[in-house]
# Entry
Amino acid sequence: MIISMHSNARKKEIKNVVREIELLGYKTKVFEGVRKTVIHIIGATERDRIKRKVENMPGVEELIPILHPFKLVSREFKKSNTIIDIDGLKIGGEEIIVMAGPCAVESEDMLLKIAEEVKKSGAKILRGGAFKPRTSPYSFQGLGKKGLEFLAKAREKTGLKIVTEVISVEDVPIVSQYTDIFQIGARNMQNFSLLKTVGRFNKPVLLKRGISSTIEEFLMAAEYIVSEGNPNVILCERGIRTHEKYTRNTLDISAVPVIKELSHLPIIVDPSHAAGDWRYVGALAKAGIAAGADGLIIEVHNEPSRALSDGKQSLKPEKFKKLMEEIKAISKSIGRKI
# Structure
């Protein structure tokens, strides 16, 4: 059970509620969010007794019984969809938002050219990795701070928002200075220290599903971020590891409607990492939108054969443009826009 306090509840009122709950024999955990404070009652079994004790106490807004282990991100806690507003750009609403760009930032000139191309085709957010966690220690690891500077320049020239990955707790402050959205990659989905750290920053977080994670584990990872006070989490289904070898991963398209039912958070699809091959990216992207995804994140490169990272799964700008036209038609057919 969760007790939601009024947005103007005083600290004394919160402490009084906590004291009364603990006098009943339960432990509590207090989450102080940007807008309001919620009190999680751990192991609550006597709900009627708790309700009688605290529902009329000063500062209490409502008591919410929640059965799922993920509390704050559950649909039980919040019935309406969370819409994340980034300077007027809304993720999770009627409009489907597409993020596009290279896997890795390679140079300023290359990044700007791709940014201009994807913007022309309708993308609203530029993706690009400045820090690249790779399977091999000998693969290109990214440009680091210089890559962040190139992303910021591309944003200044095109007006696109940017999303880039942060891979360690130590890098969060520097990445925060440049990005509009933190990205937590699949390898870091259960890096709980990193999740808690980005949860303390007032900046949206794009959380990718781990390659072997269940939907519940995925939502519990989001809970770590939200429980630290940051409600602006964008979930990303990017494929899970199965026995199949013809694609890089297997896109769990069923995760989209399931998460829509379980959680109020927006969810987007990454067809590039699911497919691992540009030939299948379009089909998976369209399937994601048809399934109800709130957006897409797609890798685009003007010379995929020379890309320093994931060139095989990157679309050329002209193929991305064609895909965007097809997505517009699907969006319209389901009552949404792009």
User: Anything to note?
Assistant: Residues 317-333 form the longest helix (17 residues). The chain has a mean pLDDT of 93.
